[in-house]
Amino acid sequence: MHLYVVLLFRMVSERASAGRGEDAQTDYGTPGGTDRGTISRRQMLKTAGVGLGAMAIGTSGVTAQSAPEGYHVPTGEDAVGPRVIYLNDFGGEGDNPQGLIHFLQYVDYLRVEGIASTQPLPSSDEVHKQIDMYEEHWENYRTHSDFPSPDELRGLVTSAASSTQSGYEPSGVSETAQHIIDRAHADSDDPLYLAVGGSMTEVAQAVHEDPSITDSIRVTSVGSWNTDQDPNARDYLYNEHPDLWWVESDSAYTGTWTHTNADTCGYMQEHIHGVGALGEYWATIEPCCNGRGCWQTGDFFTYALLLHGDPDDPTSPSWGGRWNPTDHGSNYWTDIGGETIGRWADDYFADFARRLSWGVEPAEDPESQPPTTPGNLSSSNATLTSVDLSWDASTDSGGSGLAHYAVSIDGAHFVDVPAGTTSTTLSGLAPGTSYEVGVTAVDGVGNESGAATTSVSTTEGSVVTAINAGGDSYTSGDITYEADPLTTGSTNSTTDDIGGTSDDALYQTERYGEQFTYDLSVPDGTYAVQLLFAEIYHSSAGQRVFDVSVEGTEQLSEYDLYAAAGHDRATVETVQGVSVSDGSLTIEFTASVDNAKVSAIRVLSTDSDGGDELPAVGDNANRPTDPDGDGRYEDVDGDGQPTHRDVNALFENIDAEEVQNNPDAFDFDGNGRIGFSDVLELLRQV
């Protein structure tokens, strides 16, 4: 902003204050005095000490390394500020890029939902340039508070209109205007503040396109610039939406430098210039302090209202000033005077310096900071019972370093993956099933990052046979369940609704008894057996307990159905890697308390190669199987379960013809040949 314009605004401000009579003498409170207690009206804003009083900024001995007393914007768990989109002509006069430098020091506290460079210089180049500088020091910033990653900030940058509003009625919807609409409709009970240091065109476009957002947005803006440079947008909002929540400043915003006794040049030179990339850049802007950058961040007020004080009440004291209500609508405030902003200079200069220094000085205990969240989590190569997972590496700013990644499925811990490895295979999954998968990074002292999450699904298995236990033939989708062929045991049914399923009929019947066995005729191969249950009789845990064996191997032991699922609720237990070599699949139910039971049975083929089988390895009687359907035959000895016995079988027969002639089946490390490294990889997997 040119000096003559600044002086003109100051004259207008002083003249307006003089014309208010007694109002001009209102006691706005003493910095550090009792009126600062008003900030307790917003629980997230808490004072961190006493006021600075008459501390002489620049000569007080306060350095960027020694945090001063006074109000500090909250950090850490208390850093939950208002939602805000910051709009300014960042490529314009020096106060605009300075405003962005200052704003970036508070992105841990403010819930930033957008950044846009508006008219008269709508290029986003300045925004990205400063985010690049922020990135140079982000690892240090984040040791002090939860500063968002540079990529998160880049993802919030939108493009503004190519010109200010040409007519009274807004036309078109810029990317930024649409973003305002989208964020105004976000699932939040909190208002969305639009801190506008530049053109009002984006706000006018958004409100014109969707007037309902006026219930959700709150606007703070520099009115004098828009009255002169973007009058159509400004006047449209003023005239057509008188109830819009709006703090508009014609002159008081200059109080950040025109109404303070602070030695701003001395302070900038001692505490801002050269402090990291952003501090060095500051020194090149508005060179009015012996050729170096001074403080003229008038647009600062648009979001300073949100940093200190009560944003819900613009008439109360705050770093962004106090504002007069008017008779224009119910939610419109304008200038009282620049002194209501400048009087807080001691505090907001000191807090700015404190935060800027964080970029060059990590917190004393960086080990309290978790690693960054893994990026770009994705899945691939889904099979009947497995899915490959990969992600981008996390970083850790503490000395302990990254220890491992923790992988969870549907909220339950599944596996730890060593640091340095950014992929794993989720095996043992049920065919045709969707899962929610999460990956977190854990450092050497146990700090855990936020979770990257994604949904994964296994492929549908080919149903070989299905039985509606205790009931008649039943069709669901493309699966037909045969009527129960057993004559041993007993049957029971209910008409109750069954929770957790749309196939109530399958779970409303049951086969039960102290002991009963299904011998199902199937081709030789590898299968997944799904046992469908619902407790339709008992009403508490411990009243029914039983075991289930499949092909002679106990798969469910002391299974308490009510404890697992409750009453009248469906659950499915899946047994993977069942190898059949005699044409018959045997499932045996044996009770230990009351009766065993089952509602339905599904048998799915998991032979991913169409049923071709490998020869038995060494002296083992059974052929190898592929329990998870990924094309690798982890069950080397053919007993249906990958265990350390399979590692021994592979090691002892590594040179055997049946192993060397089947590299696709036993090349566990994926290097195209069979060797000792495959034994080690199988050991790791097992």
UniProtKB/TrEMBL annotation:
Q: Where is the EF-hand domain?
A: 664-686
Q: How does it sit in the membrane?
A: Single-pass type I membrane protein
- Which residue ranges does the record annotate as region Disordered? 19-38, 361-381, 609-645
Query: Superkingdom of this entry's organism?
Result: Archaea
Transmembrane feature ranges: none
The Fibronectin type-III domain is annotated at 373-462
Where does this protein chiefly localize? endoplasmic reticulum
The places in or outside the cell where this protein is found are: Endoplasmic reticulum membrane
Cellular component, GO annotation: membrane
The record's section on InterPro entries has: EF_Hand_1_Ca_BS, EF_hand_dom, FN3_dom, FN3_sf, Galactose-bd-like_sf, Ig-like_fold, Malectin_dom, MLEC
Q: Which UniProt keywords apply?
A: Carbohydrate metabolism, Endoplasmic reticulum, Glycoprotein, Membrane, Signal, Transmembrane, Transmembrane helix
**Which GO MF terms does the UniProt record name?**
calcium ion binding; carbohydrate binding; hydrolase activity, hydrolyzing N-glycosyl compounds
Please list the residue ranges that the record marks as compositionally biased, kind Basic and acidic residues: 625-635
Enumerate the Pfam families for this protein: fn3, Malectin, Sde182_NH-like
Its family remark reads:
Belongs to the malectin family.
Q: Which PANTHER family match?
A: MALECTIN, PTHR13460
Name of the protein described by the UniProt record: PKD repeat-containing protein
Which species?
Natrinema salaciae
